[in-house]
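Reopening this ticket.

The earlier resolution said the output was attached, but the attachment link was broken on my side. Pasting everything inline this time so it's all in one place.
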Amino acid sequence: AMAENTGFLGNKMSKEGYNNVSFMGVARISDKCVVASLAYNSSVDLAGVKKVLGEKIGMQAGTHYSFSTGQMTWNLMADTLGRVFITITASSYPTRVATQCVDDLSRTFVAKAGEKSLTCKEKALDKACKSLFEKLCAKYDDLSSVDTLSGVTAKVESVKLVMQENVEIALQNCVTLESIEEKAEQLQQQAGVFKKTAKDIRKKMWWKNLKMKLAIAFIILAILGVVLAITVPKVKAATSSGDDNGD
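Inline output:
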């Protein structure tokens, strides 16, 4: 990290956003010319940027530097052609993500502006790079979308709801399935009861039929007994009478 500098004259404005990224710019170290910049939801005095550039001469190409002033952190990296890439972030912004942001700025800016940035005038590339800077600022302002650790944490929190939501849906389905199973069990129990009842009824009907048959048989036997009881004595008496007349 580099020594703290008070040359930054930017003030955070009250606008929508995460308030993580305040400024993005590209300058030449040789003449302290800021060729392209964007104050993202903030107000930045380029004179402060130039003062920082004046104090940071001698930066090694490809090395990342950072320092804090107030609630802001400056993140810088120079390339072999004397350009310095700058982002200003909140002091709580992770250094690893700020470094990633500067690298992304360097790569995309060079692809967009090329060698124009080596000779153009102050702010000459503001218009051409405005859309690029806005996209980068918006991208890195949302920490969860770019920070590996924060991103992973955010992603972990989202599955659990779908999973929770999915689990809730699964539980609802399970309840439905349980209801179907309960109905099936109830039908099976009712079928068992019906079968048992039918068996009991058949058994009762069999006993009833048997009793009826026995009763009918008993009545028939009784009638036969009565008939025999009446006819047998008469037959005997008639037979005895015939025998007496023959004598």
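Reporter confirms the inline version is readable. Residues 35 and 124 are 6 Å apart (CA to CA). The mean pLDDT is 78.
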